[in-house]
Amino acid sequence: MLSSSAASEAEELDLISQLPDSILHSILSLLPIKDSVRTSILSSRWRHLWEEAPLRLEDDSLCHNEQLISRIFHSHRGPIESLRLCNFTRATVDRIVKSAVQRGIQELTLAGYVHRLCQLPPSILTCKSLHQLSVIAYWFPKAVLPSIFPNLKELRLSCVKLHNDLLQILLSSCGSLDTLQLRDCWNSSVSSISSPSLRKFAWKSSTVDELIIKDMPNLESLMLEEYTTRDCKVKVINAPKLQLLGFLCVDFEALQLGRTLLHQQPASVFQVDAMPCWMAMLSSVKVLAINMEHSFNKTLLDLLRCFPCLEELFILKYGGSRNETHLDKKIWNEHGSLSFLDHLKTVTVKGFYGSQSDVDFLRYLVGHGKVLRKIILLYSKIFTDEKFVEAKIRQFCVQKRASSDLELGFFIDTKNNVHFSMWNELIWER
């Protein structure tokens, strides 16, 4: 046992316990909840500190444990910073969310059952402290307050039932909204939306025939599911700050950006119907993501020439093989150096198969990209042999490179599936 003098010296060395409660609360809020609770046995000084520290409940081990979350809420009295609830009973969700709202919750994720949608807890609609809200498999009540979520910055809805004009009502109510993601939300056949504050918008829907972005003066990123522009008419009426656009299917029929209409002719040639002074929105696009199947072809360059100030290009390539047929190299040379090649800095290709079609197109970029700095090729795990990479590197050894600083990178695609959410990480979270 320690002598009285040694015990006194040990207490003097416990500088952490001498910190004010506010600092200790901040420290405890950064710990996993189990470790935070365990500090209560250290001494009488620590016994009740965790109960008043800001609470973060996001761990997978907790978000599915209804009984444990209920016990934590029963014992904890402090503010709630973040909370995630997955597949809880409706009564438990209502009770916990109501308590969290009263304690100023900032980040909330609710995940229900896709085949058994429930109404959102009414208390959510009165919450003014929320900064981030993610909802999966719920439906909003028909009556929505005109000024809900005044401080909300990010809204993510997936498999959420949106009736009639509820989406636009939400956008009009959330005056500070910066980021909106919608995935497979029930809606009418035509969606027409506006937002004065929205900066990032991601959309995935298989039921909407037409998407109209009427007025988004601050929109910078528009991310669409891979086949949206093929199956859905997209009209962007007013988005003067648009910089990131994707995914565009190479075989889309028509796309309206401002007063410019892009549409494909029967001969697979893109035509731009606009006066030069109307093409400002096309020139504002700096980052473009394209979805295409099989071989690179002339249509791709016809599309790229519509975006004269392009700096970053992402290509998601489905299908294909090493033995794809390819076009005559003269077709690439006929285009010469298009205007976007004066600005293009990086190219990323997901689904690189090393076919002659792939090589010819990329060699064209290498030979004409004046400021091209990096080409990243993500290839399937089935091409893991060193000979494959070595052979492709030799094929890209173009003597007349337009840019002397160009770097070429080959990487195995660890996320080999091509779903929207996986590819989206490369672009959306830039």
Major sheet details = 14 strands, parallel
What percent strand? Answer: 25-35%
Q: Which architecture of the domain at 58-187 does the CATH hierarchy give at level 2?
A: Alpha-Beta Horseshoe
User: CATH topology of the domain at 58-187, what is it called?
Assistant: Leucine-rich repeat, LRR (right-handed beta-alpha superhelix)
Low-pLDDT runs of 5+ residues are none
- Biggest sheet strand line-up: 1-2-3-5-7-8-10-12-14-18-19-20-21-22
What is the terminal-to-terminal distance?
Answer: 57 Å
Organism: Rhynchospora breviuscula
Protein name: F-box domain-containing protein
Domain F-box: 13-49
InterPro entries: F-box-like_dom_sf, F-box_AtFBL13-like, F-box_dom, F-box_dom-containing, FBD, LRR_dom_sf, LRR_FXL15/At3g58940/PEG3-like
What key phrases describe this protein's structure?
Leucine-rich repeat, LRR (right-handed beta-alpha superhelix); 27% helix; 22 strands; 430 residues; six-stranded mixed β-sheet; 14-stranded parallel β-sheet; 26% strand; alpha/beta; 15 helices; globular
Question: How would you explain this protein's 3D organization?
Answer:
It comes from Rhynchospora breviuscula. The protein is α/β, with parallel strands linked by helices. Among the domains are: 24-53, no CATH class; 58-187, Leucine-rich repeat, LRR (right-handed beta-alpha superhelix). It has 15 helices and 22 strands. The chain has a 14-stranded parallel sheet, sandwiched between helices. The radius of gyration is 27 Å and the shape is globular.
